[in-house]
Amino acid sequence: MGSKGEATRSRLIIGARELIETHGYSGTGLNQVLAVSGAPRGSLYFHFPGGKDELVAAAIEESGAEVGALIEEAADRAPDARGAVLGLLDAFAARLEESDFTRGCPLAATALDSAAADDTVRESCRRVYTSWQRALARLLAAEGRATAEADAWSVLSLVEGALLLSRSTRTLAPLHHAREAVTRLLTGP
Amino acid sequence: MGSKGEATRSRLIIGARELIETHGYSGTGLNQVLAVSGAPRGSLYFHFPGGKDELVAAAIEESGAEVGALIEEAADRAPDARGAVLGLLDAFAARLEESDFTRGCPLAATALDSAAADDTVRESCRRVYTSWQRALARLLAAEGRATAEADAWSVLSLVEGALLLSRSTRTLAPLHHAREAVTRLLTGP
DNA sequence: AAAAATATGTAGATCAGTCTATAGAGGAGT
DNA sequence: ACTCCTCTATAGACTGATCTACATATTTTT
Description:
The structure is a homodimer.
Chain A lengths: L2 H21 L6 H8 L3 H7 L4 H26 L3 H18 L9 H6 L5 H24 L5 H22 L3 H13 L4
Helix pairs in contact in A: 1-2, 1-4, 4-5, 4-7, 5-8, 5-9, 7-8, 8-9
The structure holds a DNA duplex.
């Protein structure tokens, strides 16, 4: 495993991540990925014998891990679960604004347009979303919240929906109002 | 304006709606649309000189109007805004389950993967989402809720996020938990 | 030298869009 | 009643580009 090979593999995943986040699975061509990452065609099928599906699945998992780390980071920084979610929303808002509303949830576009398609990619999306929900549930359960599992799903729904609407309307309003909603949801019992 | 022409135009939109809902903008080929609707290629460019973008935009608007009617219908049936949203969630849950988790929000896939596509489609999505938010805001304002505008965005985020997650995980859990969250959000001040 | 990785070339399918030809309906004029 | 004319709509072939995947050859690393 030469470091050169790993570097090329990494560049391919990075390129795929950038493209599928904004254009989804079908909207991303391998030629585009190759152009962005500067890798030759042969390298793609050497590192990802499964072709497009394997590359996209790897990109999804990597993006998922990155957001997972973002959740943990926000949890470390904030005094409680509510603060962690607010921090997460702020981080997403900043990302969305910096990218001129092209980068919201890195999985969403792919999760939706591959839902009826390939099993590999769809399964990756399912696994990543579930891992995020579990991370949130852990935070909520750590505060003794009885409905941690359910609340984690609701909070994740709120965040994902706000990202979708903010990106589509090109306004931070949905994300902004999601802050208030999270505060209300995670206050009290 | 023969009725024959209108019928063909309608069949094209119906076919486009079915396909873009599950595969998004990029994932839907015009050949597929033609095959599903049984219309010849020439008819497509006769009724939609703007090509794919114009057809998809028309499909988005029609789907948007249908969901808008669904909101009004739920509002008529329920005693208050909270009940209306719960009815809407139930309707979406039924739709999702009946379609084996392929049909959630009819716009979402297109809204996300058409970020780079022509402005026509993106603008249609933005307009439809905003119209849904306004419909919800009217319901909330009618009950004297001061934060109707903000709450409408939050509720819509919650619904859209739950649809996304339910479809991706192939479970009704997110939609189910969204019911509880809506109840909590729309109870009290 | 053997294995790992890179570098192109190419195949076959599908893509959106344009082109020309033609069928059908309804009105006008004789 | 009949033909002529026009507009609407259908019908499908065709184009050039692009797509994923595979094949083969070359370079780099161990």
